Amino acid sequence: MNKVEFDDRRSFVLGLGCERGASPAEVLALARSALQQAGITADDIAAVASIAARTGEPAILNAAQSLAVPVIFFEPDVLERETPRLANPSDIVFKLVGCHGVAESAALAAAGVTAALILPKMKSPHATAAIAKTVLQND
């Protein structure tokens, strides 16, 4: 999937990052905590987004399935283009995966060029989450 379908009801993207083999329960709990902290619900989410290296990662797929939304994955070079818009760029993450952030970058990349982070990166022991809001024409 390369394109997220947004509408008046679903105008947010949940970006997720995790270590390989992270617990699906931990990642889902972090995702739900992020939604709660942002003051939105699963019904407001258009998609979950992450890095291509996590394609097939059970924790990411479980979160998207539990929230009943599609999941979109981006290559590191696409995520790296989002670095100027990140609240928490990380040189450590860059050394590990080739971009300065996963959760924030993925949320922004999926939400589009006019999107903004409404919830910067938050962490659990083995995962990260961030939320971006797309700007619809009638916003």
Can you put this structure into words, describing what you see?
The protein is of the alpha/beta class and 139 residues long. The chain has a single domain (12-133), classed as Nucleotidyltransferase, domain 5, CATH 3.30.420.180. Helices cover 33% and strands 24% of the residues. The chain has five helices and five strands. It has a five-stranded mixed sheet with strand order 3-2-1-5-4, sandwiched between helices. α2 links the parallel β2 and β3. α1 (24-38) packs across α2. The chain is globular. The two termini are 25 Å apart. The mean pLDDT is 93.
- Describe the global form: globular
Biggest pleated-sheet summary: 5 strands, mixed
| CATH level 1 class label | Alpha Beta
CATH architecture: 2-Layer Sandwich
Strand composition percent: 15-25%
Question: Any chance you could write out the topology, listing elements then pairs?
Answer:
Layout: E1 12-18, H1 24-38, E2 45-51, H2 58-67, E3 71-74, H3 76-80, H4 91-97, H5 103-111, E4 116-124, E5 127-133
Parallel strand pairs: 1-2, 2-3
Antiparallel strand pairs: 1-5, 4-5
Helix pairs in contact: 1-2
Task: Give structural attributes.
24% strand, 139 residues, five-stranded mixed sheet, 5 helices, 5 strands, globular
Concise overview:
This protein has five helices and five strands, in the order E-H-E-H-E-H-H-H-E-E.
